[in-house]
Amino acid sequence: MSQEAQERIQNLIKQNKIFVFMKGTKLMPQCGFSNNVVQILNTLGVPFETFNVLDDAEIRQGIKEYSNWPTIPQVYINGEFIGGSDILIEMYQKGELQEKVEVALAS
Questions:
Q1: For a disulfide at 21, which of 30, 65, 70, 74, Cβ 3.0-4.6 Å?
Q2: Residue-wise pLDDT tens digits, 7-20
Q3: Which CATH number belongs to the domain containing residue 94 in this structure?
Q4: Do 90 and 98 form a contact (C-beta atoms < 8 A)?
Q5: How many domains does the chain have?
Q6: What's residue 107's pLDDT?
């Protein structure tokens, strides 16, 4: 991954308390897993931003290297990599996601 791509990824994560690298946008997810993540975050009613990896091949590949995680979507909360759709669903069902989001938004 280029230094520029790495810096772009770091800046996006740092500038937003909750950030999702996904296929599509939060208004128009373009895969079921990305849609799951958007629906969960919308259900929580929290502000979040997204990046459509379909628009940028370098970021699409770079984020996989950055997180050492092979799939998209990828969710970051307070700069910390949380995981993808399955992990978010599991955390939501256990109530862990709500707690993590509340802490992030309060900081």
A1: 74
A2: 999 999 999 999 99
A3: 3.40.30.10
A4: no
A5: 1
A6: 85
* Domain limits for position 77: 3-106
Length of the chain as a residue count: 107
21 within 8 A of 57, measured Cβ to Cβ: no
**Ordered DSSP codes for 41-53:** HHHHT---EEEEG
Handedness of CA 63, 67, 70, 73 (dihedral sign): negative
Pair of tokens at residue 5: 């791509």
What are the structure tokens assigned to 24, written together? 């599509």
Structure confidence by residue, pLDDT tens digits, 58-91: 999 999 999 999 999 999 999 999 999 999 999 9
Joined together, the tokens standing for residue 103 give 């802490």
Cβ atoms within 10 A of the Cβ of 77, count?
24
